[in-house]
């Protein structure tokens, strides 16, 4: 289903979601649903050779299914599944060696920067963070040692958009640079970066691809055989592989990606417009809104926008904390992309280990709220946000600025039911 004004959706995408991944190797006995193959090891033939599978870390029928499906959904030739989204992030940077330089968009998932700062930098890989909204800043940061440019678009949680075509054009002027794009916030339903010449796409399957908040898993997809071969070795040599049950669950969740995503967008747009007009909201960040500074760009490179949005509550951290306490339908929790709506403050969740200076420079403040809009009725979500905002902000201004412990304990003072 195409969204007006955005790239026209591939009319065969839904069929790929429903059918990709399966062949006779993986579904014996004519079963429609693939079995979960639990075996950790596989029998050798009498001569000492193996058939397709050897040992589960190296590959298993359950994993192969999802890897084939991911490749198809990303418009790629190759897919690889990992034990977590962060394992896929780790695998991409394991392509680099000591002395190599990587240019990263300045606002990426805090877990990715934590991984790099605590575990990757000391291996001798040098990181530069730049505002990837401007491709020329990326170009200025490139040195003879630069081997990778790493993007997240939209970024988590400030929703900045990188111009995929422009970044790829810059990198092609510097042969040897591998371009990577974390596509988790969009999912392949709304954005397929390989079509813009990006070399490696990363997905946290945990999010939209699985869609049910009950699996942690990641993936990479690529069109480049050389990168696939290297990433495959990293995958099997590091052991960052998902188990068969998780593969089954994620594959099952993935089959309805095209049904869920338009509803996430519809809900998020409804909520974003509602928040934009709300007296207790300072600013809304949603690329699907006309007011988003890069709305035209996102329409040129995506098929729509997902259910992810952020906003700044009028006031500061105390108002935000009271707002979280007052929510009834939204659950205060990290993660995203499930059928249920979640709300979280990046400063105490996704970016809890980033420095204050870094958060300040990215405008990730205590007043920032990030929402993952689920599949509930949008009007019910707006009603919940409205009552929580009014309770948090109106009550504080009436009460002279002190947080109401009574309301936090479930009292109803100032809450419009
Ligand atoms: O949690 P895991 O499956 O390892 O995925 C890591 C990851 C990678 N990339 C992006 C853009 C992400 O948002 C994440 C995980 N993010 C959250 C848990 C979160 O609440 O934002």
Describe the secondary structure blueprint for this structure.
Layout: H1 13-19, H2 61-73, E1 78-82, H3 85-93, E2 101-105, H4 110-120, E3 126-130, H5 135-141, E4 146-152, H6 164-172, E5 178-182, H7 187-190, E6 200-204, E7 218-222, H8 225-238, H9 244-254, H10 257-276, E8 281-285, H11 295-301, E9 308-313, H12 317-326, E10 331-332, E11 342-344, H13 356-361, E12 368-372, H14 378-398, H15 405-408
Parallel strand pairs: 2-3, 2-4, 4-5, 5-6, 10-11
Antiparallel strand pairs: 1-7, 6-7, 8-9, 9-12, 11-12
Helix pairs in contact: 2-9, 3-4, 5-6, 10-14, 12-14
Bound molecules: ligand P1T.
Ligand P1T binds next to helix 3.
Can you put this structure into words, describing what you see?
This protein has helices at 13-19, 61-73, 85-93, 110-120, 135-141, 164-172, 187-190, 225-238, 244-254, 257-276, 295-301, 317-326, 356-361, 378-398, 405-408; strands at 78-82, 101-105, 126-130, 146-152, 178-182, 200-204, 218-222, 281-285, 308-313, 331-332, 342-344, 368-372. The strands form 2 sheets. The chain has a 7-stranded mixed β-sheet with strand order 1-7-6-5-4-2-3, with helices on both faces. Strands 8-9-12-11-10 form a 5-stranded mixed β-sheet. The protein starts with 12 loop residues before the first helix and ends in a 9-residue tail after the last helix. The chain has 15 helices and 12 strands. The model is unreliable at 400-417 (pLDDT under 50). The protein folds into 2 domains: 13-254, Aspartate Aminotransferase, domain 2, CATH 3.40.640; 257-397, Aspartate Aminotransferase, domain 1 (Alpha-Beta Complex), CATH 3.90.1150.10. It has 417 residues and is an alpha/beta fold. The protein is globular. Helix 5 (135-141) packs parallel to helix 6 and helix 12 (317-326) crosses helix 14.
């Amino acid at each position: 289903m195409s969204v007006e004004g955005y790239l026209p959706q591939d009319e065969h995408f839904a069929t790929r979601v429903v059918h990709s991944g399966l062949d006779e190797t993986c579904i014996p006995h004519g079963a429609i649903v693939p079995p979960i193959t639990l075996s950790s090891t596989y029998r050798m033939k009498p001569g000492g050779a193996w058939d397709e599978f050897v040992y589960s870390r190296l590959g298993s029928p359950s994993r192969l299914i999802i890897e084939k499906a991911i490749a198809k959904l990303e418009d790629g030739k190759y897919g690889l599944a990992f034990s977590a989204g962060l394992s896929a992030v780790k695998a991409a940077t394991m392509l680099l060696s000591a002395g190599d330089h990587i240019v990263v968009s300045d606002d990426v998932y805090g877990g990715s920067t934590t991984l790099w700062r605590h575990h990757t930098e000391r291996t001798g890989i040098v990181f530069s963070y730049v505002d990837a909204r401007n491709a020329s800043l990326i170009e200025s940061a490139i040195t003879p040692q630069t081997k990778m440019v790493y993007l997240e678009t939209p970024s988590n949680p400030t929703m900045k958009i990188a111009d995929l075509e422009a970044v790829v054009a810059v990198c092609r002027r510097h042969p040897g640079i591998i371009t990577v794009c974390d596509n988790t916030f969009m999912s392949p339903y709304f954005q397929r970066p390989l079509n813009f010449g990006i070399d490696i796409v990363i997905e946290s399957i945990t999010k939209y691809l699985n869609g049910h908040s009950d699996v942690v898993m990641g993936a990479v997809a690529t069109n480049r055989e050389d990168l696939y071969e290297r990433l495959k070795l990293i995958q099997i040599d590091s052991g960052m592989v998902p188990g068969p049950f998780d593969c089954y669950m994620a594959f099952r969740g993935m089959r309805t990606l095209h049904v869920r995503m338009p509803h996430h967008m519809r809900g998020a747009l409804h909520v974003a417009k509602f928040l934009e007009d709300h007296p207790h909201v300072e600013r809304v960040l949603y690329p699907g809104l006309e007011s988003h500074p890069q709305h035209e760009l996102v329409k040129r490179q995506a098929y729509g926008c997902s259910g992810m949005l952020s906003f700044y509550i009028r006031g500061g951290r105390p108002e935000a904390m009271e707002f979280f306490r007052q929510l009834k339908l939204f659950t205060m929790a990290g993660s995203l992309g499930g059928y249920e709506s979640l709300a979280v403050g990046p400063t105490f969740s996704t970016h809890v280990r980033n420095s204050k200076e870094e958060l300040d420079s990215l405008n990730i403040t205590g007043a920032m709220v990030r929402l993952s809009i689920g599949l509930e009725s949008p009007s019910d979500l707006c009603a919940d946000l409205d009552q929580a905002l009014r309770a948090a902000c109106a009550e504080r201004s009436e009460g002279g600025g002190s947080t109401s412990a009574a309301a936090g304990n479930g009292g109803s003072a100032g809450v419009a039911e």
